Input
Amino acid sequence: MKHITTEQRYLIEAYLKLNMSKKFISDELNIDSSSVYREINRNKLKFGGYSAKTADIYAKERKDRFITNRKFSSKCEKTVLKYLKKDWSPKQIVGYCLNNSIEMVSHERIYQFVRKDKNDGGVLFENLRHKLKHRKRPIGNRFPIKGRVSIEERPEIVDQKTRFGDWEMDTIIGAHQQGAILTLTERKTNFILMEKLHLGKDSVGLKNQIINLLLPYKEYIHTITTDNGAEFAEHIAIAKKIGNINLFCSSL
Output
């Protein structure tokens, strides 16, 4: 069972205020009716009723309990190895596991595991985009893609992870450079959106898929941070279509 998202909680609250049935809500949100019943019952207010904001707080508390003091068990290691070999980043692995109730440690612990493997002569680090090397910053203020804004100009609130709506966007390339997947991770909750890129890293094709993927969430997007990949060259068109959002480029 996948976790109900923040957006879905606000829709549930709105439908309940309109006295819509739980069956109607499950059909509209395309989720199992049992998930709707469970969501409402486990997050109901003390004196009855349902609040999306309160439900989100309860869900975060449960998630925090889930990840607290997790040990890097053999089960965790097996999961990490599975997705590292698919060229997923540690943050993507953690975000996916949190959203699917899969036992997992922090992304920092995964990096420790990869570094130890490298020191022992292993090759897991080869699956990381930066290969555990320090990244070089570009000289001056020029970026390969016109109109990009440096991550150094990003508001401090994004780093604080205190609000919902600040996203990180990346692409995962398959083995032997075959196939590509777009990932969008919400920084505060680690909520992740994923979609196969039908045209690979083609910037125009990727632009259209990003727009289709994000339009339902446009009211919940403040910023998007990407790397300096040429596949994000259409970032201005993306921002214009989705609405009043800011895109920032990490210094890669």
